[in-house]
């Protein structure tokens, strides 16, 4: 069943979009990531223009993340205080990111920037997670004790400390604010929730327990991506509601399924699965940028960049 997307100006199969939304929703529930880092490139592959994919995908992330958070709140695995600190940084970062996005759009360079950002970030994050997860699985098989995290690193020497009871932490608010800021910028430029950066940062940088990380990450993602969508809709007019609704329906259903699957897998198994997916998408995008397109010239609207 083909459906015409007015803002994207392309026709796409409605069931394909529902399916993509469902798959990304499952990932959202399993890993605590908004899923945008996989969905946005998938939208590129089916012919959605990058500017529309980024702005619309932020909308879908809100729904799948909200659905996932409800499941985590029932289990009491959300650190609301930590989520709020991350959120403050995220909102500031999102505002800056949308300004940068608009500036690059006026120069006509936004499509290239979005794709390059994806290749770099997915390559780095996927590689690091894959190596770390492999080491964790090897240690488990040898029955070796897990590598101890340093209880005291440079973060513990920073001022403005706050107690985060759910996470069992007493640390400075500066690192969570910086993590939130970075994620906000990425949400605006790449149409991602930023969970694929936030989840590793919360585990390895802030030292949060893995069971609390997923729900807290989703809590912050909801508000930052909702704010980003609003800014894109009012300044760029690149949010395609028909596309957003189809992805949203699939995402909400998928997130509930993903949350149930996630509770049955070990943490290191979850991380290595996520790392493999990230690297596959990164490889596809890199090939897309390196290979010569079949059509060297494309027709754009008159007067457009």
UniProtKB/TrEMBL annotation:
Q: Which region is the signal sequence?
A: none
**Key words of the record:** Cell membrane, Membrane, Transmembrane, Transmembrane helix
Q: Which InterPro entries match?
A: TM_pro_TauE-like, TSUP/Inactive_protease-like
Q: Is Membrane one of the keywords?
A: yes
Task: Please give the coiled-coil regions recorded for this protein.
Answer: none
Q: What residue ranges are annotated as transmembrane?
A: 12-39, 85-104, 116-137, 185-205, 212-231, 237-258, 270-291
| Domain of life where this protein originates | Bacteria
Q: Where in the cell is it found?
A: Cell membrane; Membrane
Mind naming one GO cellular-component term on file for this protein?
plasma membrane
Its topology with respect to the membrane?
Multi-pass membrane protein
Question: Of which family is this protein a member?
Answer: Belongs to the 4-toluene sulfonate uptake permease (TSUP) (TC 2.A.102) family.
* Protein name according to UniProt: Probable membrane transporter protein
Native species:
Shimia thalassica
């Amino acid at each position: 069943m083909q459906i015409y997307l007015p803002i994207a100006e392309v026709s796409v199969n409605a069931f394909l979009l529902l399916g993509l939304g469902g798959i990304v929703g499952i990932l959202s529930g399993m890993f605590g990531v908004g899923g945008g880092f996989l969905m946005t490139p998938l939208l590129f592959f089916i012919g959605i223009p990058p500017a529309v994919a980024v702005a619309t995908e932020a909308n879908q992330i809100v729904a799948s993340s909200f659905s996932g958070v409800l499941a985590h709140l029932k289990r009491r695995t959300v650190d609301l205080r930590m989520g709020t600190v991350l959120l403050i940084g995220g909102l500031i970062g999102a505002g800056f990111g949308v300004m940068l996005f608009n500036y690059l759009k006026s120069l006509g360079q936004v499509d290239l920037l979005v794709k390059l950002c994806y290749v770099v970030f997915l390559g780095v994050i996927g590689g690091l997670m894959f190596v770390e997860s492999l080491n964790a699985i090897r240690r488990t098989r040898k029955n070796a004790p897990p590598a101890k995290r340093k209880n005291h690193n440079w973060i513990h020497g920073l001022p403005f400390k706050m107690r985060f009871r759910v996470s069992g932490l007493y640390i400075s608010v500066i690192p969570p604010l910086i993590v939130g800021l970075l994620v906000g910028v990425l949400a605006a430029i790449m149409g991602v929730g930023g969970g694929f950066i936030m989840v590793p940062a919360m585990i390895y940088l802030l030292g949060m327990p893995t069971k609390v990380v997923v729900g807290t990450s989703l809590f912050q993602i909801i508000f930052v991506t909702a704010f980003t969508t609003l800014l894109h809709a009012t300044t760029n007019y690149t949010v395609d509601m028909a596309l957003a609704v189809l992805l949203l329906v699939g995402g909400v259903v998928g997130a509930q399924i993903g949350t149930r699957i996630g509770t049955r897998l070990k943490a290191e198994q979850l991380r290595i699965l996520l790392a493999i997916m990230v690297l596959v998408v990164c490889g596809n995008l890199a090939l897309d940028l390196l290979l010569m397109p079949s059509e060297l010239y494309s027709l754009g609207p008159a007067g457009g960049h």
